[in-house]
Structures are given as C-alpha cells and as structure tokens.
Amino acid sequence: MEKLRFALNDPAEYGLPSVELAPETWRNGVVVRMPNHLGDAVMALPALCALSKLLPEHCGLFVVAPEMFRQFYAELPEVAAFVGLRKTHANWSFKDIRNVKRLRAGVGVLFNNSPRDPIAMRLAGVPRIYGAAARGRSILLSKAFKLKRQQIPGVRAQEHLCSRYLAITMALGAPAWDGVTLPEFQFTRSGDESKQRIWRWCEHPKMLLLGPGAAYGDAKCYGNDKYNTLARWWIENGGVVVVAGGKSEIHTGNAVCNGLPAEKCVNMCGMTDLQELMMFIRFSRFMICNDSGIMHLGAALGKPGIAIFGSTDPTATGPISPEWLCLSERTECSPCFKHVCPFGHKKCMEQVSTDAIIEELKKVLS
Fold this sequence. Notes:
Elements: E1 2-4, E2 29-33, H1 38-43, H2 45-54, E3 60-66, H3 70-74, E4 81-85, H4 94-103, E5 107-110, H5 116-123, E6 128-132, E7 143-145, H6 161-171, H7 199-202, E8 207-211, H8 224-236, E9 240-243, H9 250-257, E10 265-267, H10 274-283, E11 286-290, H11 293-300, E12 305-309, H12 314-317, E13 324-328, H13 347-350, H14 354-365
Parallel strand pairs: 2-3, 2-5, 3-4, 5-6, 6-7, 8-9, 8-11, 9-10, 11-12, 12-13
Antiparallel strand pairs: 1-13
C-alpha cells in the first residue's frame, strides 16, 4: 500500500512565457473564473491568493463561480467581490455579464477550460484575458498557455493540479507558493437557532468527520461497511462520528451509521449548507474521506485526515496539505478515472485495509 503526502513540484517547470502587466493595465482589479467543482476550486486557492499579492494597491480580486459556492468565497478575506453563476454549464446570463462589467476589471484569468467564459468576459468588457489553451478558445485569449495533458489512464501524474493553476499566475508575475501556507478563512459562530443543532457535535473533543461519498461516481467510494467499521472503532474509543455529504448520499450515510448508537453517530448527508459543513470540518478532530470536495475542503481548512484513493490519482488531485495522508493500493488498472469500475470489483479500493486506517487513528488519539 502506498502512503503519500502532498508535495508540490515546481510550477516554473511548465516553462510558460512571462507576461508583463503595467499597473494601469489592471484598472479596478482582476476577475478570476474559478472551477465549477469544489475540489478543483480548493486546488486553485493557492493560485488565487498568489494573484491577490500581485495586484497594485486599490485593486480588487473578483471571483466568478457557481452561486452555490458563495458562502465558501465569502469566508476568504482576499476576495473583494463575488459573482455567482446560476447556471454552471451554460452561457452566462445577461445579469452575470452586467455584474462583471460593473467591476471594471482590467484582467481576466481562467482556471477552467470552457470557451464560453472568455466570450462572456469579452462581452463584459474585460480587455485582457489569460488561461490555458483548450477547446479552440486560444483566439479569444490575450495569451493562451499550453499545459500538457495530466490524466492518462494507468499512469500516475508527474505534478499536482494546483501546480497548473500556479504556473499561470506565476507567468503573470505572481509570487511562488511555499506548498504549505493556506488561506485563512474567516469564521464566525452563527447565532442562528437553525445552526444550534450542530453545535453539540462540534463541541465534542473527539469528533470524527467521515465523507463516504463522491459526486464523481461510485468508483471513488470506499465501502460503506468499511466506514461503518471505522466509525464503530472510533466510538468505542470515546469519540463521536458525523457523516457528511450531499442529498444524493443520504442512503450512504444511513448505511455507515447502521447499528451505531444514535447519540454517538449522526448522518448529516443532505442536511447541511456549505457554511455548516465548514463548521463541522473546522471543529473535527480528524477526517476520513474518499477523493471528494469534502476531502479538499478539509485540507483547505487546515484539518488533518486520511484520504482513500483508487480510481483517481493522489499525486495529481490529492489534498493540498501535508497534514493529510493518502492511502492507495496500486493495481494494474488504476488509476482509470472511470465513474464506475469497468470490471465491477473495485479492487483498488477494496484492498485498502481498515486495519491500516485504524493504526493511523490510534496515532491520532495518542
């Protein structure tokens, strides 16, 4: 079994041509189109924060991203304004374009590959737009950076995805990232009565947060019975367990909690908004997750944890924190990047032993 921790390769190795931007080029600031998925957005955070350090005084860092992530970016003090897209995989609405136009950004940076976004930024009056060359959109960009393909079935990547984002910002003149320091999220304990239901769990000194699902597909998921075994062991050793996930994972949470005492284990899948999920993560003692948005969010918030990898590649999309340990069992067919195991056995996940994870949990409690 492989045990991997995050290690940042040098983004300068991409060899992207540098772009010099005069102070007046920025106008009111830079507008950044962040990725559509939470995990990818977290992996782009170091590059986003590096951009904020590049801006001249009185310029703002503006973010365009799906509306459902508004609470996430609201917690980042570096972000001066947020424009939420109501439709994720569609053309920007007239209102979206108008909201970006009002920002009067002089520079646009794309951390995704859609050709729709540079078109929308042009319509919003952003004069200079930079991003990766992809899907025939290079003609729409002021400079299109050529980045090599990363996901190749059966082959481990040579670099982490966050290095690709950093390579773009460094080409624009932003400082390098040390591979350790992460943005500090603002956090205020809410007085809202609807939030009080989660505090009895958050205030427990041994709260274990489990993320047994993955929006990408079942191929990423460790077995529910295995998560149940881990939860039972943690409870028997004086802890409580919170299972987190989306609405589509309610049945998964029920399976993980099956047979465990209700006062010690709760299924919160589909019952939290993003702010509540971040509260659970912040107050957890430890986390165990599949390769998912919850895993990445936990790393961004500075919590330690274990990530279980199989069909995807921990060297490319592992949590961006040395506080996380990635467990991976190499097989002849992994990483395959499939949504569902094409052979039906999920050998790459099944061979990760719960005993190995429990040994790591013992270190946490000691």
